[in-house]
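Input structure tokens:
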């Protein structure tokens, strides 16, 4: 694990995200898909993002296929991050003691990594019965950008993903519960990254919630979903997209097909918008 260390902010962050047609329960085949996709279109990206459970699919056998923390998928992620000099973000299931978690990893080029355990396991599937629920929210920093990780079903819970005013910036501001702060403050994160296996039957909710989380949190959102039909015949349209802080699409993948897309996020325009429209000063 590597602690967050403040660093110079890179003015523009390039995200390459892969709307993968996951091969059911075949990790080696999925490693090859990801490797080939980023080799041809993911050059010069700062962040590489793949869907939830990109190595196996969202299977009823997720617990049985879980790996030790230092397993094959982490080694693959390390090789990708090192080769592209980029942050690699994706989820796979990991054994923790006697249990299993759906763990979102962010892997740095130097091989160190951090993780977030999915906070909301999907109760309408076997995931909630098989896997442990994560209890801790996380943030990471990469090239000066503050990033919030989330997984699929988490997207439906705005309180869990709520951006917050950094406490240090709030010192000396009114605290009587009536008077609202009047000076600028810093928000916890600039970018929300969501890795998902969100079925096509609910694609409108997916697309709407990505925009809602961007608007309410004054941040960029990148949602990366799978495409294709899984091993139990559930279709996924993907609808992966990068959204700006006003809820406008910066880029998106074609519905229903495997595709890699990129988006360039501009830090100055985000901060200018936040300063001009400081809605966060009135957060409940």
């Amino acid at each position: 694990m590597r602690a967050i260390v403040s660093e110079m902010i890179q003015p523009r962050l390039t995200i390459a995200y892969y709307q993968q047609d996951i091969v059911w329960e075949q990790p080696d085949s999925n490693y090859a898909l990801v490797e080939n996709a980023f080799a041809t279109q993911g050059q010069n990206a700062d962040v590489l993002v793949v869907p939830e459970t990109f190595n196996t699919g969202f299977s009823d056998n997720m617990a049985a296929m879980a790996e030790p923390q230092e397993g094959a998928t982490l080694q693959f992620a390390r090789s990708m991050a090192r080769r592209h000099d980029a942050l690699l973000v994706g989820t796979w299931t990991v054994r923790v003691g006697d249990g299993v978690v759906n763990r979102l990893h962010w892997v740095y080029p130097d091989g160190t990594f951090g993780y977030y355990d999915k906070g909301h396991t999907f109760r309408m599937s076997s995931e909630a019965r098989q896997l442990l629920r994560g209890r801790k929210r996380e943030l990471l920093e990469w090239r000066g950008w503050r990033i919030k990780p989330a997984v699929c079903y988490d997207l439906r819970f705005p309180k869990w993903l709520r951006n917050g005013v950094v406490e240090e910036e709030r010192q000396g501001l009114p605290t009587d519960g009536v008077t609202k702060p009047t000076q600028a403050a810093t928000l916890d994160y600039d970018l929300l990254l969501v890795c998902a296996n969100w079925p096509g039957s609910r694609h409108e909710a997916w697309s709407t919630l990505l925009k809602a989380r961007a608007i309410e949190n004054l941040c960029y959102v990148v949602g990366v979903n799978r495409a294709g039909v899984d091993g139990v015949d559930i279709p996924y349209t993907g609808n992966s997209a990068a959204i700006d802080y006003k809820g406008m699409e910066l880029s998106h993948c074609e519905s229903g097909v495997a595709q890699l897309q990129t988006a360039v996020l501009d830090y100055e325009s985000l901060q200018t918008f936040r300063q001009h429209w400081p809605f966060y000063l009135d957060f409940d």
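Confidence is low (pLDDT under 50) at residues 168-184. The chain has one domain: 12-282.
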